[in-house]
Design a protein that fits this description.
Helices cover 24% and strands 23% of the residues. With 684 residues, it is α/β, with parallel strands linked by helices. The protein folds into 3 domains: 3-291, TIM Barrel; 329-500, Rossmann fold, CATH 3.40.50.1700; 571-682, Immunoglobulins (Immunoglobulin-like). The strands form 8 sheets. A 7-stranded mixed β-sheet has the order 1-2-3-4-5-7-10. Helix 11 packs across helix 15 (491-500). The longest helix is centred in the first third of the chain and has 18 residues, at 82-99. It is globular. It starts with a helix and ends with a strand. The relative contact order is 0.12. The model is unreliable at 373-378 (pLDDT under 50).
Length: 684
């Protein structure tokens, strides 16, 4: 390869017409970005698309182009279903290739350290094992289709407020045991072709130029063979290249295309070695061929019907039944009229906002312009996918009468509610990229609306479509609460499936729901309301005690614990036993469905004591679907890093007694079972 050809691979351009920037070439398909290939060597263009929740059509500029819109990442995390994560990845990869793309800018797995982060809905919860396993499986599925998948945003992009200027401070042990462990597990499991850096700083250095993270940890300690790309507009200097950044992606959004002229000058001056240049190019090409992304891209037909079933399965399995006093599942026979209130439930379901927004196959029922605080400006819209829960309920329960009330006048709605046999309130919280929530309170007076309705009619249940946990001051006054997240293009049907009993709910919370803001490490987003560009330092003093581990350590009882979720049937866990087989710790037990319905349980194995020290850490999980009366044996192999501490140069499992317990949540755990383990050390 000539140097011109090498440098051509080291930076990409935005492939969207953007005010104030040069227009992309006319033959480029509008997309998130593109890196021109080298025809002489049969090296393909890298055609990049955002794909966290489906193949996006930026601002709808590809006229008529739709894609399967998956539920929020939190919904996928709530399934605790690794196979379903793989299936979703296969679907994403197939649609990407069929549309002419060979690089997916998806795989978000930043841990939900704070309840207010606007992009939590895209991510996979607060636990590194859960997030790492599901992200890795999704990546593995996508790359099976001949596309390159990424994991992002490496690392600690855990709030949107001042994300470009925030300096995330954390000590090495805490970082290795939490956010970095999630990335490490995902990379080991999925072997993604690329890792995308974050916008923020970590311990004083921008993620795109953080040599410790990019080179020492990722490439040396973990032996990662792929390439590191920047996020769009996240590169600040040519020094990023020597720090370990291999590609300046979407470079036209940066102040300068650093990885062209300036990098050539650094090479000529000897400040960048030719070996480093070859290493970056080799990493990119290695991933192209390892993933099969060199195969010619030919746009082809997409089986949207089959893909819709994947979206519907994630939505239904990811819904979490938080409370049920027996009102669910709903009966179709001999029951009176139902009043459906709020949430635009008569026309559709809410979607999250930002670069993960998909133009859905089902169409858009409403698109309401809303000025975002920053980032996407006037292009931000509150979007409802055309999948009406009320219409789906009518189909599922044809003998019941449904009517709709927007809830705009709460007292009038409450008066109507008093005459219904049942009221279903759809409550929403719109979240997205570039904006964080300012509290746990449902916006626009919805708490007062729910309270007024529940007072008028005690036979009230609530369906939540939110991007984050919310407070529920009305919880004791309602009969049931279903957390539906942002349920994607099949969301209306999936909600009806669960409420009617066609699907037995099996979702489990991938994040803790605090009782109040004061329980969390930070009660509000640091810097909230400050002007863009303001410097901000956030000390993540909770360290590796993220989410449920924070609550356990401080003896706090949240509103709903990580792992919580109800079913229409009942399960029993039996006979937990632990055995050390060679160097591998194995847990075995049985799960039995002791109820009267087909259903799925999600037994969670927690470490509760490590060498005499109390802890609370998820070390295994499995989704088990059982017929009534069926019993099944389950075996879990426990990753030693979940038992160990990071100590300087590697992982150390201290000698002593370790106790484990099966749990229905991080708070509700069963009998403790112990085993003595020897001292053991592992490399990074």
């Amino acid at each position: 390869m000539s140097d011109d050809e090498r440098f051509q691979l080291l930076h990409g351009r935005l492939a969207i017409p953007w005010p104030g920037l040069p227009s992309p070439p006319a033959h480029w398909k509008i997309s998130s970005g593109r890196v021109p290939g080298i025809p002489r060597l049969d090296i393909p263009d890298l055609a990049e698309t955002d794909a966290s929740l489906g193949i996006i059509n930026p601002f709808g500029l590809r006229e008529g182009d739709v894609a399967t819109a998956l539920p929020a990442g939190q919904a996928l995390a709530a399934t605790f279903n690794a196979k379903l994560a793989h299936d979703s990845g296969v679907m994403l990869g197939a649609e990407a290739r069929a549309k002419g793309f060979n690089v997916l800018l998806g795989g978000g797995l930043n841990l939900a350290r704070d309840f207010y982060c606007g992009r939590n809905f895209e991510y996979l919860g607060e636990d590194p094992l859960l997030a790492g396993v599901l992200a890795g499986e999704s990546v593995r599925g996508s790359q099976s289709q001949g596309v390159i998948a990424t994991v992002k945003h490496y690392s600690l992009n855990v709030q949107e407020t001042l994300r470009d200027t925030l300096d995330a401070r954390i000590d090495e042990t805490a970082h290795r045991e939490s956010d970095l462990l999630a990335f490490q597990i995902a990379i080991e499991r999925g072997q993604p072709g690329a890792v995308m850096g974050a916008y923020n700083r970590i311990n004083g250095e921008h993620a795109s130029s953080n040599a410790h993270l990019l080179t020492s940890v990722l490439k040396q300690d973990w032996g990662y063979p792929g390439w590191v790309m920047s996020d769009w507009g996240a590169v600040h200097s040519v020094e990023s290249f020597n720090a370990g950044l291999d590609q300046q992606s979407g470079a036209t959004l940066d102040r300068q295309i650093w990885f062209d002229g300036p990098l050539r000058e650094e090479l000529a001056a000897g400040r960048v070695s030719r070996a480093r240049l070859s290493d970056a190019v080799r990493r990119i090409l290695r991933s192209v061929y390892a993933a099969g992304a060199d195969r010619p891209l030919e746009e082809s037909a997409i089986d949207y019907v089959a893909h819709a079933q994947v979206a519907r399965a994630i939505a239904a399995q990811g819904m979490v039944l938080l409370k049920n006093d027996g009102v669910l599942p709903l009966s179709d026979a001999g029951a009176g009229p139902v009043l459906v209130v709020g949430g635009q439930a008569h026309i559709g379901v809410l979607a999250g906002y930002g670069s993960s927004m998909v133009t859905p196959v089902c169409g858009v029922a409403a698109s309401i312009p809303v000025g975002a605080p920053s980032g996407f400006g006037q292009r931000s819209r509150q979007v409802y996918f055309a999948s009406s829960p009320m219409e789906a309920l009518r189909n599922a329960l044809p003998h019941r009468q449904f009517s709709y009330d927007s809830g705009y006048f709460p007292q009038t709605t409450a008066a109507r509610a008093a005459h219904a046999s049942l009221v279903i309130v759809f409550a929403t919280q719109w979240q997205g990229e570039s904006m964080d929530a300012d509290s746990l309170t449902l916006p626009q007076g919805q708490d007062a609306l729910i309270a007024a309705i529940a007072q008028a009619n005690p036979n009230t249940l609530v369906v939540l479509q939110t991007g984050n946990p919310v407070r529920m001051p009305w919880l004791k006054q309602v009969r049931a609460v279903l957390q539906a997240w942002y349920p994607g293009q099949e969301g209306g049907a999936a909600i009806a499936d669960v409420l009617s009993g066609r699907v037995n709910p099996s979702g489990r919370l991938p994040v803790t729901f605090p009782l109040a803001e004061s329980q969390a490490p930070r009660a509000r987003a640091p810097g909230l309301g400050a002007p863009d560009g303001k410097s901000l330092t956030v000390n993540y003093f909770e360290g590796s005690d993220v989410g449920y581990r924070w609550y356990a350590k401080h003896g706090l009882r949240p509103l709903f614990a990580f792992g919580h979720g109800l079913s229409y049937t009942h399960f029993k866990h039996l006979g937990l036993k632990l055995a050390l087989e060679g160097n591998t710790l194995v847990a075995r037990f049985e799960v039995e469905n002791i109820g009267e319905r087909l259903g799925a349980d999600v037994p969670q194995l927690y470490l509760v004591e490590a060498a005499g020290q109390p802890v609370r850490r998820l070390v295994g999980f499995e989704r088990v679907e059982l017929q009534p009366g069926e019993r099944r044996a389950v075996q879990m192999t426990i990753d030693v890093r979940l038992l160990a501490r990071w100590e300087g140069e590697g992982w150390s499992q201290h000698a002593g007694r370790y106790r484990f317990a099966l749990g229905r949540s991080a708070l509700k755990i069963g009998r403790r079972v112990g085993i003595v383990l020897p001292q053991r050390t592992l490399p990074p």
